[in-house]
Amino acid sequence: MATPGSHDRITSNSPTRRSVLRAAAIGAGAVTLPSVLAACGSGSGAGGGGGKSVTFGSNWSDPVPKKGIANAVAAFQSSSGYTVKTNTVDHNSFQQNINRYLQGNPDDVFGWFAGYRMQYFAQKGLLGDISDVWSGFSGMSDAIKAQSTGLDGKQYFVPYYYYPWAVFYRKSVFAQHGYQIPTTWDQYISLAKQMQKDGLVPISFSDKDGWPAMGTFDYINMRLNGYDFHKSLMGGHEDWSGTKVKQVFDTWRQLLPYYQQGALGLTWQESAQALQQKKTGMMTLGMFIGQQFAGADQADLDFFAYPALDPTNGQDAVEAPIDGFLLSHKAKNETGAKKLLTFLGTPKAENAYLSADSSELGVNSSVDTSGYNSLQQSGAKLVSTAKSISQFMDRDSRPDFVSTVMIQALQTFLNNPSDVDGLCNSIQRQKTAIYATEG
Fold it and tell me: InterPro entries this protein is in (predicted)?
């Protein structure tokens, strides 16, 4: 998810988050060993050297998204005559080792993220230009295209789906206890207190993987300080030791008594399962939380927009990251890779994925939404009515800053929330040092 420094700043033809997903929504509805990604790169020489074989590095490692990707790959193979060798690596390991992977022996095509996180690697010459692929696309809005475009005006990313973040809960639990949906922070805290009295852990929370906590920081910052400040902070243009950022942490601290115990040792899946089992009352996460629910349980899952903290900002901003595909600059079968990317940009490919994973929303306006469940319909509405849309801290910020500073900083706060001044001063010092380099 990434931070432009002055030399990285997004130009005027980049999208405002006010419009990036609205058209799509309306139409659609920690390991760092060098060997971690060897499986991804190892197939490139054998399978990507031309002909009718393409290699694909996939970070869709959980069962539900893995099945969705397999569906899309199978559809491509049956219609194209190509063979795709899919090399699946654990999502977090893939993300943490992406730079080494791209500079080593990457697959022809690989999964990644839109926005600045893509632009950063494009600027470094690690991605292949797919502007010719984009010239044949239909059903992609200008805003979606802008999120797929590098700072040089060329396209590098094939968007696949997006997933809004919100506060998820089980309808039956709220009905059982007579809970009302909170729209303000005070109501949110009062609800958490009541859940605690009722014997529930109020909020499922985890950060073992280093990124889930970012969503809560993003929302509190946007609710307190507004989307424009948040975007500027993520872009490296604000002071992390300033009053506004300290207020974010001070506000967040009010939630900590209501979190699951041992959150730093829990994965998001484990925390989501606690919500599924009705042990907890709420959880702030992306809509992919639905992957941990099935059948009647999934029909019982719902969400509400993150509560307002300042009436000026209200609940206007929504976090809604976009996932998709990129061409490696070292693709050994560029022709085959581009054929695969061309297919992945079609409604047929998105429908194949969504048939297995009902927790995402397709970006192509021609995606079949007739099968969308109530959660997907609500998610599409949430995004389509948002005034501003963010991608996520580790996609809107410079990757080296997030990986070396913010993951540890947020975990330090969660473990010891008493020294906000020291924490923010430390973040600012490290940020200054990192942004003094070219990155």
Answer: Bact_solute-bd_prot1 (IPR050490), SBP (IPR006059), TAT_signal (IPR006311)
